[in-house]
Write a structure and sequence with these properties.
Layout lengths: L9 H14 L5 H5 L1 E5 L6 E7 L22 E7 L1 E10 H6 L4 H25 L5 E3 L16 H13 L19 E5 L1 H8 L2 H10 L1 H5 L5 E2 L2 E5 L5 E2 L9 E7 L4 E6 L6 E5 L13 E10 L2 E2 L5 E6 L4
Parallel strand pairs: 1-11, 5-15, 6-8
Antiparallel strand pairs: 2-3, 4-13, 6-10, 7-8, 9-10, 10-15, 11-14, 12-13
Helix pairs in contact: 1-4
């Protein structure tokens, strides 16, 4: 019988952790590209991200025998406080025994999926606060419409901004979930992705260099960006001209934002409470729960290493 009443060993409880990896982690695009920070146990909830500012370049020659003035050191600091998030479901013994579905195992899958999507959106909510923004038309979100979708030319301008700000591209390979060698990372909504891959310059390039990629709807590396499609890319419902939806492509370099692991607990973990574990609070062993809990502190670390492009989508 598939019931929490039998989940009493570490091997049995580990089933949910394996399920967590299979269902939740593939959605964590934002968490995968954040600069990791660890808060050791019993050291409080605050994290201070600090960096020394670059020194002013020297373009004047030294005067013979004269000691120049010392350069001044300065630093920038970003401080944040970790918060706790979580969710759980409760299942009765009667539901588990009489239900047609495998309630407990299905609940484990749902909780895992909910954890992954929740953490991804928590991080996205911070990343989207970056102030480096470009628009397909005009200079505001309210000006966007369906006649001005995202284009390769617009992407290249946003990449130009990152390069001018000395934002470092990611290293490694895209399959390793930490970027593409020498490229920035872009997270884009499926609707916006359709417009980008419909750009004439991209279509012509793919037509001759890799037509199979074009017909299989594979996302190309375009404009110096390794693209990832996600429905978690920002959507501003009815935010554009005439109430059209506005979508945003997020493009960033290495160390643009940070994510936190509290006391080595991981970004989230599942918690199973079997039937009877509540003691006198559940005297007839009627209730079991399965939930997840996470500590999160996403922070934009350097606005110059991040940019957002907003546009409507073609009808």
């Amino acid at each position: 019988m598939d019931t929490f009443g039998t989940l009493t060993t570490q091997d049995q409880l580990a089933f949910f952790d394996r399920d967590l990896l299979e269902r939740a982690l593939p959605t964590l695009f934002f968490a995968g590209f954040g600069q990791p920070r660890n808060i050791p146990k019993n050291t409080g909830r605050k994290v201070s991200y600090r960096r020394f500012n670059s020194l002013t370049t020297v373009t004047s020659a030294l005067s013979e025998g004269v000691t120049p003035a010392a350069a001044s050191l300065s630093n920038a600091e970003v401080i944040g406080t970790a918060a706790q998030y979580g969710n759980y479901v409760q299942v009765s013994d009667f539901m588990d025994m009489s239900g047609i579905d495998k309630v407990m195992s299905e609940s484990g899958e749902l909780i895992s999926e909910n954890a992954g999507q929740s953490v991804d959106q928590i991080i996205r909510a911070e990343v989207v606060t970056g102030t480096s923004v470009g628009y397909a038309t005009g200079s505001a979100r309210t000006s966007q419409d369906a006649s001005n979708p995202i284009t390769l030319a617009a992407v290249k301008k946003r990449v130009r901004t990152l390069q001018a700000n000395n934002a470092m591209p990611f290293r490694g390979s895209r399959s390793e979930a930490n970027g593409q060698g020498g490229l920035y990372v872009g997270i884009i909504h499926p609707y916006m992705w359709h417009d980008l891959t419909n750009d004439t310059d991209i279509k012509d390039t793919m037509k001759y260099s890799n037509p199979e990629q074009l017909w299989n709807f594979e996302l190309p590396i375009a404009g110096g960006v390794a693209w990832y499609v996600s429905t978690h890319a920002p959507l501003f419902a009815a935010g554009g001209s005439g109430g059209v939806d506005v979508y945003a492509a997020l493009i960033f370099g290495k160390n643009a934002f940070g994510v936190v692991d509290v006391a080595g607990s991981g970004r989230f973990r599942t918690i199973a409470k079997p039937l009877g574990s509540a003691g006198a609070a559940d005297p007839l062993d009627q209730r079991a729960t399965l939930g997840w809990k996470a500590y999160q502190l996403p922070k934009v670390l350097n606005n110059n290493f991040f940019t957002r492009f907003e546009a409507g989508v073609a009808a």
